[in-house]
Amino acid sequence: MCTLTFNPRDRGFALAMNRDEKRARARGAPPAPRTFGNTNALLPSESGGGTWIGVNEHAVCLALINWYSVPSQPRQALSSRGGVIPSLLDAPDAQSVRERLKPAPLSSKNPFRLIGVFAREKAVVEWQWNGRRLEVVEHPWALGIWISSGFDEPGAQQARGATFLRRRIEQDPSQGDWLRQLHASHIPEAGAYSVCMHRADAATVSCSEITVNDETVRFAYCDGPPCSGAAWTESQLALLSASNPR
Fold first, then answer.
1. Torsion angle, alpha carbons of 154, 158, 161, 165, to 10
2. Hey, is 84 helix, strand or coil?
3. Cβ of 165: how many Cβ atoms within 10 Å?
4. Which of 32, 139, 136, 128 lies closest to 86, judged by CA?
5. Residue ranges of the domains in the chain?
6. What is the DSSP letter of 69?
7. Mapping DSSP to helix (H, G, I), strand (E, B) and coil, where does residue 106 land?
């Protein structure tokens, strides 16, 4: 249960992701520096060490949303989808992710959609795992949104997609805090279909906002629903030079 919005910029991009979870689930930890191989990254984490979003010093950002509209396959031993991104965060480019995902042991994981943003290639690539087969979808380097919901995925996609289009018309997405306002919105009302989601059993529990330019990653994080007025914390990560990678 998540909403992810991508907003390209002249030099880099901005991206925001609401994490929606059952109220009984343990809270995630805020973004912290981690090293994968020789690659530095910033990512929040779940109690088991997995994550739903992360960005590395190659300006590669990966975000994972569950794919509820595809039926889960019964398996004897499921492994968490939270381990997918950490296994890939040392990748310097899209091709590296492609090569790593092909042999990955995905058969033990329920369906998901992995969205990769590669600033230096100006590429947005989606890997769709339906529980049996992995498909790759190339997206344009353009404003986009991805939506998942365990309550009513088609309904949430329609409602939040309409909010996205409405906000795009009302305000230039390149201006001000467009992403933050979108991810705190309660249209048509604060409920199962709003971008900032509120249900009796589940809710938006955090919001991640990643901004990448030529030199730096800025990771802003709200540990709570973005509508709540909770404080945002910020972490930064220096990017490696494209002409002189480590």
1. 160
2. coil
3. 11
4. 32
5. 2-146+205-238
6. T
7. helix
Does residue 72 register a pLDDT over 90?
no
Global pTM exceeds 0.85? yes
CA distance 132 to 40: 32
For residue 86, how many C-alpha atoms fall within 13 Å in the half-sphere facing its CB?
A: 16
Is 75 or 137 the better-scoring residue by pLDDT? 137
Helix/strand/coil for 77 = coil
- The residue count of the chain comes to 246
- The residue written with tokens 């914390």 in the block is 233
**Residue in the block written with tokens 């994972």:** 64
Q: Which of 131, 104, 103, 127 is nearest to 117 (CA)?
A: 127
> Looking at residues 12-40, what average pLDDT do you find?
94
Give how far the C-alpha of residue 136 lies from the chain's centroid of Cα atoms, to the nearest Å: 17
Bridging pattern class, strands 134-139 and 123-129: antiparallel
Superfamily (CATH) of domain 2-146+205-238:
Penicillin V Acylase; Chain A (3.60.60.10)
pLDDT above 90 (res 238): yes
Q: How confident is the model at residue 23 (pLDDT cuts 50, 70, 90)?
A: confident
